[in-house]
Amino acid sequence: MALKTDGSKKNYVNRGAWTAEEDQRLAQVIEIHGPRKWKSIAAKAGIDRCGKSCRLRWMNYLRPNIKRGNISDQEEDLILRLHKLLGNRWSLIAGRLPGRTDNEIKNYWNSHLSKKIHQKGKQRRRSPKTEGSNPQETGVLEKENVKVSEEGTSKVNADLKTSFNVDEFFDFSSEGFSNLEWMSQFLDVNEVLCGFL
DNA sequence: AAAGAGTCCAACCGCGACCAG
DNA sequence: CCTGGTCGCGGTTGGACTCTT
């Protein structure tokens, strides 16, 4: 990773990988001042990082209760379903998976799930019998899904937003990980409803 | 054993939204 | 209103690691 300077030591910004010492300093400052005003946190920690970089490090790595690696089948299934529903809105999807970060889910999607879906699509295109019988399983609809995800805040998502507030609807504040099952059931119902529309 | 290809994931970038002054 | 600062998001990059030949 490259280090970038503008020539003056004052504006030197480290852009490389984070060291254990930097992590420790950042965590200490956040413990005292809380995770806000990232620019001043960076300054107080005495590390040559921009506020943005500090925030990212905290959100994706240092934050308490972060789960790392080993995404379970249940979580994977949930990601797939939520992606179908919400598109590439990783922060929203991550919000429904306690302990997971948007970056992790995005990476997981790009490296695992997008391939899986692509492969499934290929298989299905090879077996014309299934085509038409279940529109959700066809390559045609898959294209539509891609469209939704490419546009990010697609029209479909915009419509969704106006019809209900996602954050209010999926309020996990008082419930734990066990909600995954409930969510799974909800998404099943949602898929059936989508079939009617 | 070495080289090249493929994969993973931490971190950066650009942009838009929000808010205080 | 306008402006500047801050924050959060999704997309992208590139280094490290693993696999294949």
TrEMBL record:
GO-annotated biological processes: cell differentiation; regulation of DNA-templated transcription
Gene Ontology MF term list: transcription cis-regulatory region binding
Pfam families associated with the record: Myb_DNA-binding
Basic residues compositional bias, start-end: 115-127
UniProt-annotated stretches for the region Disordered: 115-146
Official protein name in the record: SANT/Myb domain
Keywords assigned: DNA-binding, Nucleus, Repeat
Alphabetical list of InterPro entries matching this protein: Homeodomain-like_sf, Myb_dom, Myb_TF_plants, SANT/Myb
Organism per entry: Macleaya cordata
Residues of the signal peptide: none
Cell compartment(s), UniProt: Nucleus
